[in-house]
Design goal:
Structural class: alpha/beta
Shape: elongated
CATH topology of the domain at 310-472: Heat Shock Protein 90
Distance between the termini: 49 Å
CATH architecture of the domain at 310-472: 2-Layer Sandwich
Number of strands: 14
Oligomer: single chain
Radius of gyration: 52 Å
CATH superfamily of the domain at 310-472: Histidine kinase-like ATPase, C-terminal domain
CATH class of the domain at 310-472: Alpha Beta
Length: 620
């Protein structure tokens, strides 16, 4: 169950009409291309048929000229032999020239018809023989003007030669007639195809017009939706910047307040140790400790919203966290609220702090419980998801890629748009006075952002609320287990500790607690002073206890120099919040020991003893 449709999912579905319209347009264009190709082929065939008919007529005309040329040659020879009139010589020569030209023309016109070429090959020797016979007779008449040739033989020889030539002429004319008929049939088929092409052209035009109209309609609707998404993204960007500004202010205040609380808690515990059990001031110190504890929780929430709290990051199975907390929630939620936990199979891993993930689920579950005063259903789900470029268009700061989704849905009263716009702001609440601090969802927002994730809320009045959290997936990393801590028989010691802290009050309280625990403590108010002190000492140094953020040089930078000078020394950081000096976004790995401010006497002693009994820090 994913709850209501998100704007991201709505954007995907809104593109379907555009895709369908585009597909219809592609089909129409393909059909038009096919029709155009078919029309081109049809017109080519029409042109080919017309050219074939033209060649056929030209061949028939050339054949008639050949016959005419042969007749002119025969008339010229006969007339010259009988009358010796030179006029007949011109007739003979005109026929001879025309015969050569016309036979060449016929061969050129029938170059693509093998059957006609064969007939011409058979006709040519006969025509050449006949022309040679006439030429010989003419030559004899011209060289012997007084001697007349045997004129009586000319008609018989001409008739005999013409009889041999006539079948070839008939064959060529017959073949030309057949080609003309074939060309006529091809023209008829081309005309029929033209009618078909015209029909498809009209149909394609209609499809193109309708497809273009649909495309324009979908485009205009998509543009309106895109502008709405852009406006929503701008609102999210402005909201994110506003929350970032408030978060930085809150984190700065919380950091300074943590130093104050460290002094208050430390001095209270030191004072309580010096008072007798029956001293009336001990009850005041108990109240002071309780108030400091509430202030500590408040600063922790402010740091979470400002993304400056200490996160102990490791590779996690989100399903395991959900199942563990689901068991706890099933016992603490009222019977009127039905809890459903739906972990996804094959869920990817995430890089997060397990305690903070539990805090997220707890805060969201409390919100859901309060939104269902008459009972309802609370559903917690996980899933593998892929966010693509559409998510980056809908939400500012989202990078495409694989994510693990955590969805928390309820069937409560829901929220309107005005309420949704402020739910992640600190101290914003819709509950009655005294029933909420307004930091629950602000804390969730800060933890998610500090873990590199994204959170979006979907809700409507009377239709419940769904929170969707997306954490980057780290499928290749194995699930990391927290490093085992060796228990110590005692929380005291005699080792030498170098304490570096720029806040005088915090430094003094820390020194007094450690000294009371048996340690020898060397103090420095700055990294430069610590290095100068270290250069003058010759006795062993066992632990460097340093603040993280200090003027001039950060705690991690100081630790690197000290480890290089004193191999085997242990290092413990203390800070009101983790900074980029330790790791980006305030997270540090399991190999870095860090004590979060404000700390109590027992937590300081436990952490110091644990680090001293653990492995030394490697030089880097």
């Amino acid at each position: 169950m994913w709850g209501r449709v998100s704007p991201f999912e709505e954007a995907v579905s809104s593109r379907r009409p555009l895709l369908l319209a585009g597909f219809a347009l592609v089909v129409a264009l393909a059909t038009l291309a096919g029709v155009t190709l078919l029309a081109r082929r049809t017109f080519d065939r029409l042109q080919h048929g017309s050219e074939a008919r033209q060649r056929a007529y030209e061949v028939l005309i050339a054949l008639r000229k050949v016959r005419q040329d042969i007749g002119e040659m025969r008339v010229g020879v006969t007339g010259y032999v009988l009358t010796r009139d030179t006029v007949y010589l011109a007739t003979y020569r005109s026929g001879r020239t025309g015969l050569a030209t016309d036979t060449t023309t016929i061969r050129a016109l029938t170059g693509g018809v093998p059957s006609l070429q064969r007939e011409l090959d058979l006709l040519r020797p006969e025509v050449v023989s006949y022309a040679a016979d006439l030429a010989a007779t003419m030559q004899q008449a011209m060289t012997s003007p007084t001697q007349s040739p045997d004129v009586g033989l000319l008609p018989s020889r001409s008739a005999m030669l013409l009889e041999r030539i006539r079948p070839h002429f008939v064959a060529i004319e017959t073949e030309q007639g057949r080609l003309l008929d074939a060309s006529a049939r091809e023209v008829q088929r081309a005309v029929a195809r033209t009618n078909t092409i015209f029909f498809w052209a009209l149909l394609t035009g209609a499809i193109l017009i309708l497809g273009t109209a649909a495309l324009l309609f979908v485009h205009l609707r998509s543009r309106v939706r895109a502008e709405a998404r852009l406006a929503r993204a701008r609102e999210e960007l402005q909201e994110g910047r506003r929350l970032d500004a408030v978060g930085q202010l809150a984190a700065g205040v919380a950091h300074d307040f943590n130093n104050i609380l460290t002094v208050i808690i430390g001095l209270g515990e030191l004072t309580q140790r010096t008072l007798p059990r029956d001293h009336p001031g001990r009850s005041d110190l108990v109240l002071l400790r309780e108030a400091a504890g509430k202030a500590t929780e408040l600063t922790r929430q402010l740091l979470a919203f400002g993304r400056r709290q200490v996160l102990e990051m490791r590779t996690l199975d989100l399903n395991a966290v959900v199942r563990h907390l689901g068991t706890f929630l099933s016992r603490v939620l009222p019977e009127s609220v039905q809890l459903s936990v739906l972990p996804a199979d094959g869920l990817g891993r995430v890089w997060a702090d397990p305690s903070q993930l539990e805090q997220i689920l707890m805060n969201l579950a409390v919100n859901a419980r309060d939104a269902m005063p008459g009972g309802g259903r609370l559903t917690i789900e996980t899933a593998n998801v892929e966010l693509d470029h559409l998510a980056t268009e809908l939400h500012d700061g989202v990078k495409p890629g694989p994510y693990v989704a955590l969805m928390v849905s309820d069937t409560g009263v829901g929220m309107d748009a005005a309420t949704r716009a402020h739910i992640f702001e600190p101290f914003f609440t819709t509950k009655e006075a005294g029933k909420g601090t307004g930091l629950g969802l602000a804390t969730v927002y800060g933890i998610v952002k500090q873990s590199g994730g994204h959170i979006w809320a979907y809700s409507e009045p009377a239709h419940g609320t769904t929170f969707k959290i997306y954490l980057p997936r780290v499928d290749d990393a194995p699930v990391a287990e927290p490093p085992p801590v060796s228990p110590s028989e005692s929380l005291t010691g005699t080792e030498t500790i170098l304490l570096v802290e720029d806040d005088d009050a915090v430094r003094d309280v820390t020194r007094r607690i450690l000294t009371a625990s048996g340690y020898r403590v060397l103090t420095a108010e700055s990294p430069e002073t610590a290095l100068s002190l270290l250069a003058r000492r010759s006795e062993p140094l066992h632990l460097l206890l340093t603040d993280v953020v200090m003027p001039g040089m950060s705690g991690p930078q100081l630790a690197r120099e000290v480890v290089a000078l004193v191999p085997g020394i242990r290092v413990l950081f203390q800070s009101g919040y983790s900074d980029a000096a330790i790791a980006q976004d305030g997270a540090f790995d399991g190999g870095t020991a860090l004590l979060a401010k404000p700390f109590s006497m027992i937590s300081l002693r436990q952490k110091v003893r644990s680090v001293l009994d653990g492995p030394p820090r490697a030089a880097s």
